[in-house]
Design a protein that fits this description.
The structure is a homodimer. By secondary structure, the first copy, chain A, is mostly helical. In chain A, about 80% of the residues lie in helices and about 0% in strands.
């Protein structure tokens, strides 16, 4: 393979990484907004029913190459990170 | 808050989830392509230097609300999932 092609693919990968970063942070902002509207504060409690509903929708739309179990795992990590962020925001408001 | 606004935000969240799904799978396809070009097979070995380089670029671009440590954690999960996928693809070729 040509080195140029390889470099091109690596650049594409870096670009996709930045897209993932952007959409993860956009999701975090949205979750904060929902939490604020819901409770008048930034903490949204864990809602297993809503979480399952979101996961089911994502998995239903999954066409791979990642398998459904992998997608579930990654999204659970994202959900957890969002909850942790809300906890941090709550603490910072209490200081 | 109005119920309509809440529903609207939930729909936005579902939409963002699907965007994350799309870009995660796009990343997985790109990693497979790089692996194929690199080795003539679908397995790309773990490359800690390249992984660190990718993480540094992502963290440098991070403007929050997720903190850098959270972004690092989520991306490590994504990298690991990509490696696992490559292993699965390799096994399926060997059967």
């Amino acid at each position: 393979m040509s080195k140029a092609r390889f470099e091109q693919l690596r650049e594409q990968l870096d670009q996709v990484n930045l897209e993932i970063l952007e959409v993860l942070n956009r999701r975090a902002e949205l979750v904060s907004e929902i939490g604020l509207l819901k409770n008048g504060k930034t903490t949204e409690r864990f809602d297993p029913i809503r979480e399952k509903e979101m996961l089911d929708k994502v998995v239903a739309a999954n066409e791979g190459p990642f398998q459904n179990d992998t997608i579930r795992h990654l999204f659970k990590q994202i959900f957890q990170a969002s909850l942790n962020l809300q906890e941090e925001e709550k603490k910072s408001l209490l200081v």
